Amino acid sequence: MSELILSKTDLEGLFAFCENDALKAKAALRLSKLKLPGKKTEHYRYFSIDRILSKSYTLFKPYIAEIKESEDVVIENGVLLSKPKNLEISLCDSDFVDDEHFDNVYYVNHLLSKKAIKLDIKESMSLKIRHIFNKENSLIPYRIFINVDSGVEFELYEVFEGEEAKESLVFYGLDVNVGERDRFDWIRVQDIETPSYSMIASHRVFVKDGGKFDIKSFDIGEGHIAHNLKADLMRGSNANAKHLIYTDKNAIRANITQLVHKEVEVEVSQDARHVLKDNSTAIFDAIVKIEKDAKKAIAHQNNRSILLNDKAYMVSKPQLEIYTDELEASHGSTTGTIEEEEIFYMRSRGIDRKKARKMIIFGFMKELIDSVEDERIKEDILERFERIYERDDI
Questions:
Q1: Phi, psi torsion values for 376, nearest 5 degrees
Q2: Quick check: 115 and 87 in contact, CB under 8 A?
Q3: Comparing C-alpha atoms, which of 242, 293, 240 is closest to residue 263?
Q4: How many CB atoms lie within 10 A of CB 90?
Q5: Spatial CB neighbours of 380, under 8 Å, sequence gap ≥ 6
Q6: Is residue 388 part of a domain?
Q7: Does residue 350 lie within any of the structural domains?
Q8: DSSP secondary structure string, 109-170?
Q9: CA separation, residue 3 to residues 8, 94, 118, 142, 200 (Å)
Q10: pLDDT per residue over 121-137, tens digit each?
Q11: What tens digit of pLDDT does each residue of 248-282 get?
Q12: Would you say residue 371 lies in a domain?
């Protein structure tokens, strides 16, 4: 195993871990413009990325294990351990790379990931992936490539377990191809009760003509976590993004996204909500880009945040980049606190202060949680919010 301090590693040093010449050429070309990640990287400006890149990690190299049969896909430290019987899954070179991703960690992650876990989705299904991390002081890199055949409806539910991975850093991400007239519904919940691992996840979704892409992300509790998502949307496709963050303690949680209208008649809706407590920070840095040829576009962005403490910090940057004049678009952002009038009204109805605050907070979050159609998944997500919320008095 190799010791690695990313802030002191140059591009040639990263190339030493990669045997794929085509991938190295792509990464070199893109990183010559983006540069290697660091505190000067604009979208990491408030993320304190130097705090995690300056640590020394043992580079963990995922190996090929005997794959067992299970109800869910189980990935431990980037190693595929088990899968459902009828799911087509294999290991392949990590070279499904977007030439124009905005995130430099996306390319570093590919360089450090020798093999990608490839899922071929050829029929409609619902699938759960359990990500387990239990290596301490380690850098754990891996990628997942998902190809969804045309006409298929695919629901993916991701959960993360990492209490034992103290002082580790995870680089992971999805590269997803969504076929024509497909629906890809991606639900991700990441709850952390006590400080353990950090993560920078960089994703890319390519949606072909008429495809539908929904993402519902739920980030709960502590942790130093960023999810970077770029989605390219082709003719007549649709993207609906919902993000809900509840942070406490000293957490830093970030959703950094670019949803790109590439061709005509694309619709995008993005709704983010945040509840921040203690000394925590949440980041919503979201660009909806409408390119020159993407006429008849519809794009709506909205972000609302509640600060429960004076020291909580919200970074809200919803942005529209418009290069055409045939569109319908709007965006907005509000950040505030719980109004004492609301508390007073509920107390006048016999509800104590603690319960009143909880009802207001969960009422604020409810619409996004209720957007999950699968009742079992919805109940699981709600229980995770309840567990983190109830561990301390506000």
A1: -65, -40
A2: no
A3: 293
A4: 13
A5: 189
A6: no
A7: no
A8: HHHH-SEEEEEEE-S-EEEEEEEE---TTEEEEEEEEEEE-TT-EEEEEEEEE-TT-TT-EE
A9: 11, 22, 28, 17, 19
A10: 999 999 999 999 999 99
A11: 999 999 999 999 999 999 999 999 999 999 999 99
A12: no
Measuring CA to CA, how many Å separate 234 from each of 13, 96, 281?
37, 18, 34
Q: Which residues span the domain enclosing 137?
A: 2-338
* The token pair that represents 146 in the structure block: 């998902």
- With residue 342 as reference, give the H or E element that holds it: helix 340-347
* Cβ-contact 293, 266 below 8 angstroms: no
Total H helices, total E strands in the chain: 7, 22
Write out the two tokens for 29. 């070309």
Cα separation values, 334 from 128, 189, 245, 312, 359, Å:
34, 24, 15, 15, 20
Residue 352 forms part of a structural domain: no
- 283, 23, 21: which is closest to 143 by C-alpha? 23
The total number of structural domains that make up the chain = 1
What are the angstrom distances between the C-alpha of 45 and each of 38, 41, 42, 63, 332? Answer: 9, 6, 5, 34, 21
> Looking at residue 120, what is its pLDDT?
96
Least Cα distance to 142 among 111, 106, 171 occurs for 171
- What is the Cα–Cα distance from 241 to 57, expressed in whole angstroms? 34
